[in-house]
Amino acid sequence: MSKQIHSTFFDTDCWPAPGKLNLFLHITGRRDDGYHLLQTMFQFFDYGDSLYFDINNNGQLKRLTDIDGVSEEQDLIIRAAKMLQETSGCSKGVDIKLSKRLPMGGGIGGGSSDAATTLVALNQLWGVNMNLDELAKIGIKLGADVPIFIHGQAAWAEGIGEKINYLDTTEPYYLIIKPDCSVPTAQIFSHPGLTRDSQKLKMSAFRRGLGNDCEEVVRSLYPQVAEALDWLSGYQTAELTGTGACIFAAFDTKEQAEKVAGKAPAKWDTIVARGLNCSPLNIRAQKVNSKISAQ
After folding, report:
1. d(Cα 2, Cα 33) in Å, to the nearest integer?
2. Fewer Cβ atoms within 10 Å of its own Cβ: the N or the C terminal residue of the chain?
3. Are 83 and 122 in contact (CB under 8 A)?
4. 2 pLDDT above the threshold of 60
């Protein structure tokens, strides 16, 4: 049996950092500065990391949780807090605890989601009161996916990820599989064999199964991902999210997804989670804002 992870999800005291899926990903060009132009559809799912913030008045930023291979200075969480602090002129600091569940190198948004949650949470807890567009301008400096987590709505994204249009879609149950490998995003986007000239689509053309331009390169470099895609395709249409390594398939019911997950090889981790058009981070931010307004 595989190690199956169910969407028990977040406790009420945390600030959620949910995972995301790219329901398709096309690369339509490349800018002079090396950034790739893309089109993609993001949707969240009800499983992810949890963050806890303890505000201080001494201006110090500290991560209380060790993360293998990621120093505090490199961590997007601390970098996001520092950028918000510098941009806003806020003199407050914070101690941050992280419960890490999303796999690194999986293409489901772990680091980007953590950074977005840090910006959204501290914006409220520090009393900075920037709007989402202002936070997104900070977030895009940390990663192309960060703005989508800040805005917190399923969306069609273009450019380098900063041009966002909300677009609701069905909310199926997903079986998400993490093969026994991690895929560095930079390796895929720098590969000479990557498709970079896909034809641009209109939002009205969105449908499931449009494909991922990174898949061919990822398959060639990571046979573990190719194996998982081929296996899952035996049960349902399997797709790569982002640059991988995670793959996914949509099911009508949780029971259908769990049944297939139960057959997965033990070397793979699996997540069964519900697709969401509204991020749990948005819901949490609204609740905290209501409490602050009532005080």
Report:
1. 42
2. C
3. no
4. no
